[in-house]
Amino acid sequence: EINIAFCVRHPNLLQFIGATKVGNPMILTELMPTSLRKEMNNKHLTRPQILRISRDVASALNYLHLWKPEAILHRGVCSPNVLLEPSGHDQWKAKLSDYGSLDIQRKL
Questions:
Q1: What is the model's pTM?
Q2: Which partner for 80 in 36, 37, 46, 48 could form a disulfide, CB atoms 3.0-4.6 Å apart?
Q3: What is the pLDDT of residues 4-40, one digit of tens each?
Q4: Are 13 and 29 in contact (CB under 8 A)?
Q5: In whole angstroms, what is the distance from residue 83 CA to residue 98 CA?
Q6: Backbone angles phi, psi at 28, to 5 degrees
Q7: How would you class 67 by CB atoms within 10 Å of its CB: exposed for 0-12, middle for 13-18, buried for 19 or more?
Q8: Which residues contact 80 (CB under 8 A, 6 or more apart)?
Q9: What tens digit of pLDDT does each residue of 31-58 get?
C-alpha cells in the first residue's frame, strides 16, 4: 500500500506525503475539507458539479488502470473515498483516496 502510494502522482489522487513504521504505522496525506458522501447527504451538489466530480474520478481511475508495467485496480471506489476541495466559484475538485484496497493486476 505504501509503496504504491509513494509511486503514483496524479492531480485527482490524494497526495501521499510520507509514512512511518515506528510505533503505530501512519500514513500522512494532504488534508481535504469534505467528501462526496457528505456533500450528497447535504444535497448541495448541482448537475455541473456532479459531472465535474465524475470526470475527475474517471481521470484518476484511467491513470491507475494505465499504470505501467502493471495496471493498478482500486477496488474500493465509493462516495466516502472521493474527497473534495473547493476549486473556483461553486466548483469542486475530486481526489480519489483509500489506497488500502489497491491491487496490482498481473498481465497474463
A1: 0.84
A2: 37
A3: 777 889 999 999 898 888 888 888 899 999 999 999 9
A4: no
A5: 10
A6: -110, 125
A7: middle
A8: 35, 36, 37, 98
A9: 999 999 999 999 889 999 999 999 999 9
**Predicted confidence band of residue 104 (pLDDT cuts 50, 70, 90):** low
SS3 label, residue 34: strand
Quote the Cα angle for 17-72-45, to 5°: 70
| Residue 26 CB contacts under 8 Å (≥ 6 apart), including other chains | 19, 20
Report residue 38 as a C-alpha cell.
457528505
Grid cell 458522501 is found at 37
Cell numbers standing for residue 96: 480519489
pLDDT tens for 93-103 read 999 998 655 56
